[in-house]
Amino acid sequence: MTSMNGAFVMSGLNPITIGLLVVILAASAIMSGLSGFGFSAIGALCLTLLPPQLGVPLLMTLSAANQVMSLRQLKADMKPISQWWPEGPAPYLLGGLVGVPVGLAILRSLPTTNLMLVFGGFLVLYAAYSLRRPDAEPVTVKGNWLASSLVGMSGGVIGGFTAFPGAPVVVWSGLRRLPKQESRAIVQPYIFALQVLSIVLLALQHPQTFDKKYWLLVAITVPVVLPCTLFGVRLYRSLSDVNFRRVTFMLLGISGLGLLIKAAGAIGAAHHL
User: Fold this and answer.
1) What pTM was estimated for this model as a whole?
2) Which of 45, 104, 128, 149 is geometrically suited to a Cys-Cys bond with 91, CB 3.0 to 4.6 A?
3) What are phi and psi of 240, to 5 degrees?
4) Number of neighbours of residue 126 by Cβ within 10 angstroms
5) Transmembrane ranges (predicted)?
6) CA distance 117 to 121
7) What domain range includes position 237?
8) What are phi and psi of 51, to 5 degrees?
9) Exposed, middle or buried: residue 229 (CB in 10 Å: 0-12, 13-18, 19+)?
């Protein structure tokens, strides 16, 4: 225990910060295990305790670990890779891989605060509307790989400046009223692939990000995230399709609120300067 406390002190962390991080990430893992997405939406609260250059890669890594655990538990619900095109996640992944570089370019060159306000507001309104009609008629689009690719590309673009790449795919699945197994079979491989791509790009461009403090936090938080993910998956198995959509819409609303708060903070900081 003394050596662990010493490691915290050497890394500039304290037990209170670690305790708060554990609580936030445990809640993130449970909700993501339950819905298949939303880990970063709730986990973004960690950025109030950690600098973004440490918190963002930590969230990416834990989100990827969360997705691996969920995918292993739900292996029977996932389509084999041979069936990923055109009804599975392949078109979304293709679009997402194209969209990520565009999103990163937007992050560097355009006023992302305004974009976050618009997208966050849309998610909040869409979630509020959908919660009132969780069993409404679906959008009648089936077998359209081009539409799926465009949705996936929009997720890659939006993920580049919001860190929530799965939101457009989740919205699209909700509009189509896909059964919960089919929705997760698309959303989870998509989020996992884009998180891994982001981690690889970050490691290539900024290898100094993955320092001793990062690895210490990974070692502390992974043993919390994985069992909480399992608990969330068990809750998911008990949900009907309608209740699953309700949970999905609630998390989309939380994601939108997170973006609005993040954008408001950026605006306040700019005015202060």
Assistant:
1) 0.79
2) 149
3) -75, 170
4) 18
5) 6-27, 34-54, 90-107, 114-131, 151-175, 187-208, 214-236, 248-270
6) 6
7) 2-272
8) -65, 150
9) buried
Structure tokens belonging to residue 158:
């939006």
Asked whether the beta carbons of 151 and 92 are under 8 A apart, the reply is yes
Q: What is the three-class DSSP state of 92?
A: helix
For residue 73, give both structure tokens: 């538990």
* 98 Cβ contact partners less than 8 Å away, ≥ 6 residues apart: 153, 156
Cis status of the peptide bond prior to 86, with omega within 30 of 0:
yes
Q: C-alpha angle with apex 165: 160 to 169, nearest 5 degrees?
A: 140
Our count of domains for the chain comes to 1
The token pair that represents 44 in the structure block = 């973004």
Element (H, E) at 264: helix 241-272
Per-residue tokens: 167: 């939101």
Mean pLDDT by 10 residues, the chain (273 residues): 47 81 94 87 81 83 91 81 86 92 74 78 87 66 80 87 81 85 89 86 83 92 95 92 86 84 70 59
Which pLDDT value is given to residue 215?
Answer: 93
Give residue 136's pLDDT.
60
Cβ-proximal residues to 28 (8 Å cutoff; 6+ apart), any chain: 38, 39, 40, 41, 42, 43, 62, 66, 225
User: Sign of the C-alpha dihedral, residues 256, 230, 239, 20?
Assistant: negative
